[in-house]
Amino acid sequence: MLVFTNLTACSWKNSHKSPSLVPVFGVLCDGTTFEFFKFQEHGNSYTFSRGCIPGDPELFRRGLPISTPSNPTVFLKELRIVCETLFDIMLQAYILSLEAFRNRSVESSKKLKAPRKSLVKWEGALVLAHSASGKCRRAEESRINGQINEANSISQEGIQDLASR
Asked: Using CB atoms within 10 A as the burial measure, which of 60, 80, 114, 135 is most buried?
């Protein structure tokens, strides 16, 4: 599978730049459906996942579909779901990257026997990123429950967390 090969190559390249292995995320679109992938090495083994959560509706088990723009309302609703999914994946990848840099700073601090100045900043950025992720997911729950104003307010708070890092 081409996606697997490309994700493996990206992981190999990442492993030469950092001692902590960060997962590689991939998105594949054939023009009608978006598929999401994750590849992560664990020493001599690996996991390769396709973005399907147990219990997903049948419609989403083969990726997120997107219609032709002939019906603008349907198209925009589907596009919103795809965009929010992409944003969430990027936010999770950002969090994992912050954790990798924080862990590297922790290891350097141990070698130096003193905390690095950057460690506090990595920790602070991580707290804000986790907060933003939680708020964005809560905002989606509010939107699903029809609480649009609350959803907008919570998502703005999440974006402010990211901006203040």
From this structure: 135
Distances (CA, A) of 7 to 15, 17, 53, 157: 12, 16, 20, 33
Give helix 72-112 / helix 117-144 axis angle, nearest 10°: 160
Residues near 74 by beta carbon (within 8 Å), at least 6 away in sequence: 67
> Please, what's the b/e burial string for 78-94 (b: 16 or more CB within 10 A of its CB; e: otherwise)?
beebbebbeeebebeeb
Domain boundary among 65, 98, 116: 65
CA distance 147 to 80: 17
Q: For residue 19, what pLDDT band results from cuts at 50, 70 and 90?
A: very low
Question: Are 61 and 31 within 8 A, CB to CB?
Answer: no
Residue 38 falls inside a structural domain: yes
Q: Specify if 79 maps to a domain.
A: no
Task: Tell whether pTM > 0.85.
Answer: no
Based on the structure, what is the number of domains in the chain? 2
Does 58 fall in a domain? yes
